Amino acid sequence: MLDTFRIKTSIDSLKRRLTGLVGSETGQRLLCQPASTIDLTTAMREQAIVIMKFVPETIGATNAAFWGAALFQSIVSATFAQQDETDPEQRWDWPLFVDEVQMFVKAERAEDAERMWTRTRSMGVGLIGAHQGLNQLGEKLGGIVLNVIGGMCLTSGVRDDTRDLVNAYANQGLQPEDFTGVKPREELLIRFPVERRDMGLMSAIPRERPPEQPAPAHPPTARPPFTPASPAEALDLATLEALEQGVREALATHPDLLPETVYRAVAHAWLSALHQEYRAALDAAGRATSASQLSDQAWAAIQHLIEQLRAVATRRAQHDAEHLVQRPRTLPADQHLAQLSQQRDGVHPLINACYVAALVRRYPTDERSLAQPDRGRRPRDSSRSPAGPAVTPPAVPGPPARRQAPP
């Protein structure tokens, strides 16, 4: 009996972790796409610029460790695919810049980091990691950075790492004040190899960032309306627009809440109302013999509806992206590219909130496992709603057949 309880507790813990993994925005962007939107191997061969926004603080340490490992493994796999080109001179270099690199490497796994850096560099993918100091990397990994990595750039004065830096460059006669006196944005210290030879530490003057180019002066153009391909898609579009209107109304009612909180609240409220309608329709049609079957079939129908909404949202976003490319640019370059990237490869936050909410509601976690003393957790307050603030579920338009009989 005890073993059964432990197994159940482990399964519940796994469910909670998966819910948190899929529920994060990063998880939704990586998991909730119908297909991969990027081929890193092709990007390296074509010298494409790829920007990945990954903020570990917003998704938690557990999710950050998982996604960080997944992203780096994808990059390493794409790097070794360059071996298909047998002539090393025909392999394009592809630098990889990682901000706050200490968030993605573990000090206790220094050998893995060294292996990744040296092997990918031999394939033309050089890692440039930005961090505040060697002390963030740990003693062993910091030593690898000083002795193994090909280059280094010191952009401001450091005190915690002064002794290590002085010892590393003792043959150049550098003193502690040479490192602590570096003025940000006025000077920097750099080291890089030339013809496989270390040229030592050199002083340099950083280049000034060019001023941002303003957007061209063009009158705004009206966006052509998106035309559904079929009556069924028109009904899905009307449902999607009703949900989006519900979000706008909820944001106006709760201006102090984050949009992500409102997305979850609207999704839970709408799915609760829709689940009741689908259960009633299935019960009236005699398509289930038990309450559990009614509930499971209703959630399956709801998940099918969410996939239809995702499809029409993707087509509408592609339509908007094509119009954005064709019309004259009226926004600054960075905003224009961000908007274009979101429409081409982004995910609909409300659709993802509905997707995750349906998974959580269809496969609920046994909250009794949270109350075990040996796990150090307290049970959830039964009076507290997991869906967030109370919102009015948006009405689902369409003929009675859509509202009463699930597909």
TrEMBL record:
InterPro entries noted in UniProt? P-loop_NTPase
Q: What organism does this protein naturally occur in?
A: Candidatus Chloroploca asiatica
Provide the protein name: TraD/TraG TraM recognition site domain-containing protein
- Provide ranges: composition bias, Basic and acidic residues: 366-383
Q: Where is the composition biased (Pro residues)?
A: 212-228, 391-407
Q: For the region Disordered, give the residue spans.
A: 206-230, 366-407
Q: Which domain of life is it from?
A: Bacteria
